[in-house]
């Protein structure tokens, strides 16, 4: 996951220098999705909310692939979906932990 964050940071740095607004928007969204996915992992979502976690992970990877090909519109959409499902994974993992603690 650290490698993915480093890759997203590198893409963000490149976006600032070469692509203007669209690349910057993608970079911000990708970093946000990546941070939320990392939070989900910390909460155990990879086991407690597998569908949401792995779907978010796949969408973030696809966003990075699209950005690498300068398809920033698609990359932004995939990053948005990744963020949405990472947030769901966080919610499900927290809920499962609360229910398991009873």
Tell me about this structure.
The chain has 102 residues and is an all-alpha fold. It has one domain. The protein is built from 5 helices and no strands. It has helices at 2-18, 21-42, 45-48, 50-68, 72-100. Helix 1 (2-18) runs antiparallel to helix 2 and helix 2 (21-42) runs antiparallel to helix 4 (50-68).
SSE inventory with pairings:
Layout: H1 2-18, H2 21-42, H3 45-48, H4 50-68, H5 72-100
Helix pairs in contact: 1-2, 2-4, 2-5, 4-5
Keywords:
single chain, mainly alpha, elongated
The residue-averaged pLDDT reads 87
β-sheet strand percentage: under 5%
Tell me the helix content: over 70%
Low-confidence stretches: none
Q: What is the domain total for the residues?
A: 1
Straight-line N-to-C gap:
31 Å
Question: Radius of gyration from the CA trace?
Answer: 14 Å
Shape: elongated
Give me the secondary-structure category. Answer: mainly alpha
Give the H and E element order: HHHHH
Question: How many strands, what sense, and barrel or not for the largest sheet?
Answer: none
Q: DSSP helix count?
A: 5
Extended strand count: 0
In short:
With 102 residues, the chain is mainly α. The protein has helices at residues 2-18, 21-42, 45-48, 50-68, 72-100. The mean pLDDT is 87.
